[in-house]
Design a protein that fits this description.
Length: 467
């Protein structure tokens, strides 16, 4: 039988709270840096004017859909499969899963390229884009999605490494890439000396160069003696069960990811009824919401690895306790961010623009929805933990419930004569529904069979109390 790697033993035996914090620290750093990459790009693009900022607001939900699909949904399926194979000491399967993961990523990357190159104009028009902002959105979109395969390969390789419990390598690669991207983005957007500026397209090109370099570095690591896995591209027999093991989790997670981004896309379209500045205001404010996704993923990725490894090894109790530790920490952090944004909205919004209508719309969103960010973070981190458990029915149902409340509620608000404030109230209510559905069902035993509700508060606390 294969000996247990020290990193795997850490996931199976070390004290839960310090282990979660230790694994999450570099991962939170990498996710914040990765999210900051998009914010930095938006900051520089905002210098090109209001139309460019509105263009970014139109494209950003689709870019984040790709990011979340590749890193969180399909990437979660990859990491879960690797973690469970390592936990069960099926090392040969774990090695073979790498090639299967890369082929899946390649297919999805090409699909995103075709869909957005052919259907981008229709999509952004439906989201409220028109005139100069629509044309700028198409320029940025065509550049970004022409290189969608690079984004998918980068996130697939990161997921493979995180599935082994190694959070440091993806973190280091991302931070190093961001250090390069910070000067590269304005250089390509505005130009310097003999190098002409590319405008909004320059931000997209800089982003793709970042993913290209990161992909190469991650692959070199996996081929090095330091890697737990020993993947090969040649001589590996492709096996349907390995594809199915990744996709049965990844595709279900993809439904949840689409629902998350569709909620924001619908809100963008509803805001579009109040003009381009309202789109820019909502889009800029909602970027803080998107910052919560990588923050939750910072805790969710190590939870995924720990839950998957523990379940692979047959230790259900430890898997559950790890999930509640991560959930409590993530709720506290995301709720603090939301309350801060609600009290000081202009500190965030004025980083990207000063148009009065934009600031008014963004302020309304942050003051209404910000205090409920904790529920969003709670649902997100438990979704990732559920990927590790290989049980995503209830998290997906929670996402669909969120989509229904946000989309239908926002539409009804305007249909009945409401304003942007009412649209945002529907978004906030959707967060609460999302977080509570996932939390309640996991506490009821959804990972291990039928949901059965605890008969008393004491029984519930026994289920969720970490040790």
């Amino acid at each position: 039988m294969t000996a247990i790697d020290p990193r795997t033993r850490l996931l199976l035996e070390a004290p839960i709270v310090p282990t979660v914090l230790r694994l999450a620290a570099p991962n939170v750093l990498v996710m914040i840096v990765q999210a900051s990459v998009g914010l930095i790009e938006t900051y520089f693009v905002g210098k090109l004017g209001g139309d460019a900022l509105a263009a970014m607001a139109l494209v950003f939900p689709i870019v984040m859909l790709m990011q979340m699909s590749s890193a969180g949904a399909i990437g979660g399926g990859i990491a879960s499969s690797i973690a469970r194979a390592v936990g069960a000491r099926r090392r040969e399967d774990a090695d073979a899963l790498v090639l299967h993961a890369l082929l899946i990523a390649l297919g999805f990357g090409l699909a995103f390229t075709l869909a957005l190159l052919l259907g981008g104009r229709w999509l952004y028009t439906q989201m409220g884009g028109s005139g100069a902002s629509l044309e700028a959105a198409l320029v940025y979109s065509h550049w970004v999605f022409a290189g969608a395969v690079l984004v998918w390969l980068f996130n697939a390789l990161s997921a493979v490494i995180r599935g082994t419990g190694n959070m440091a390598v993806p973190a280091n690669v991302t931070v190093a890439g961001a250090v390069v991207l910070i000067p590269l983005s304005p250089l390509l957007i505005f130009g310097w000396g003999p190098l002409p500026g590319m405008g909004i397209a320059g931000g997209a090109v800089a982003l793709l160069l970042y993913y290209l370099g990161g992909t190469l570095v991650l692959w070199l690591y996996l081929r090095s003696p330091r890697s737990l896995l020993k993947p090969k591209l040649i001589g590996v027999q492709l096996r349907r069960p390995l594809f199915r093991d990744i996709l049965r989790i990844g595709l279900v997670g993809l439904i949840a990811t689409v629902a998350t981004n569709l909620s924001i896309g619908i809100a963008t379209a509803l805001a579009g009824q109040f003009g381009p500045d309202a789109i820019a205001g909502y889009g800029t404010a909602a970027r803080l919401e998107y910052l919560l996704v990588p923050l939750a993923f910072g805790f969710g990725a190590p939870l995924l690895a720990m839950v998957g490894t523990c379940i692979g090894a047959g230790d259900r109790e430890r898997a559950m306790k790890a999930a509640w530790v991560g959930a409590a920490i993530t709720f506290a952090i995301t709720e603090t961010i939301g309350l801060t944004a609600a009290f000081f909205p202009l500190a965030w919004l004025t980083l990207f623009g000063t148009e009065p209508v934009m600031l008014e719309a963004g302020t309304q969103y942050l003051q209404v929805v910000g205090p409920l960010y904790g529920f969003f973070g709670l649902g997100q981190v438990l979704h990732f933990a559920s990927q590790g458990a290989g049980r995503l029915f209830w998290p997906v149902l929670g996402n669909l419930a969120r989509l229904l409340v946000a989309g239908l509620g926002g539409w009804l608000a305007l249909h009945w004569g409401g304003n942007l404030m009412h649209v945002f109230a529907a978004q906030g209510a959707a967060f609460v529904v999302y977080g509570l559905v996932i939390t309640a069902t996991i506490a009821g035993g959804a990972w291990f069979g039928r949901v059965s509700w605890p008969r008393s508060t004491a029984a519930l606390m026994r289920r969720i109390q970490p040790t």
